[in-house]
Amino acid sequence: MPRLGAHLSIAGGLPRAIDRAVASRCEALQIFTKSAGQWRARALPADEIVLFRRRAAEAGITPVVAHNSYLINIAAADPALRAQSLAALEEEYDRAAALGLDALVMHPGSFTTGSEGEGLRLVADGLRHVLRMRPGPGPRLLLEQTAGQGTNLGHRFEHLATILDRVGDTPRVGVCLDTCHLIAAGYDIGSETGYRSTFEAFTRLIGLDRLYLFHLNDSRKPCGSRVDRHEHIGKGCLGPAPFRRLLSDPRFARLPMIIETPKLDTPESRRHDVDPWDRRNLRTLRRLIGKG
After folding, report:
1. 3-288 is classed in which CATH architecture?
2. The pTM is what?
C-alpha cells in the first residue's frame, strides 16, 4: 500500500515534526528545514540533527522529505537572482543531507523575462552544478510538476522531460506529481479516460521509474485553470474518484503520498500536535483503500 503522510510544521524545532507525524498517524512526512519565505536560515545544531534522525528512525516514518523555499528560482533570467537561488538550493540540499532526508522537492522555477527554452536550460544546468559539487550519496532532487501560473516551468510533462534529458541518466533526480497541479495544468485526472491518458503520456515522455512521490491535494479551481489552490480531499474539482484510482493503482503501490491540504490554523489548533483537517484528510484517503 502507498505510505500516506502530510506536510507538517517544524515550529518548536525539527524533532517536533516527528512528534506531530506520529500523533497524526503519518507513515511518511514532508517538512521545510527553514522558513519557506525567507532567504536566511538558522544553523542546525548538532544535537537537534541527532535527535531528529533518532526520532524518525524510532517512529519508522519513511520517507522523510523536505520542500525547498518558494523564493528559489534557478530558472531566473536575472543573474543576481539566479546566483542567490543556486546558493540557497545548495544550502537546502546540505540541510536535507545533514538530516538524513530521502529527497528535496523543488519547483523548477519561472523564466521571468527570459524564454521558456532558456529557463529549462538554466534549471538543468543548476541541477548538474549541485550534483557535481556533491558527488557522494545524498537526498534525491525531485522536480515538482506545477500548476502553470504565469511563467512557471514544469506544468507540462515535456518541460520535465527536457530538464531530465539535459541532466542525464541519473537516479539522483526524479519527479514529484501533485494532483492539484495536474488538473490545474490541464491533465484531466478526474475522469477515468483522462487519468489513463495522463499516465500514458507521463510514461511515454518521462517514465514511471523517475516518479518517486505524490502530493495528494484536491483543487479549488477547474481543469486547465493554471491556478494553484489546494482543497481538502474529495471536496474540490477532483472529488474522491481520482484519489481512489491512485491509491489502488498497482503501479504506485510503493510510492509515498503526502497531503498538503489546508490547515485549520487557529491559535487553539496551533497548540496541538494534530491538525484536525490533516486527520480528516488522511482518514478519507485510508477509507478509500479500506485502511480507515
Report:
1. Alpha-Beta Barrel (3.20)
2. 0.96
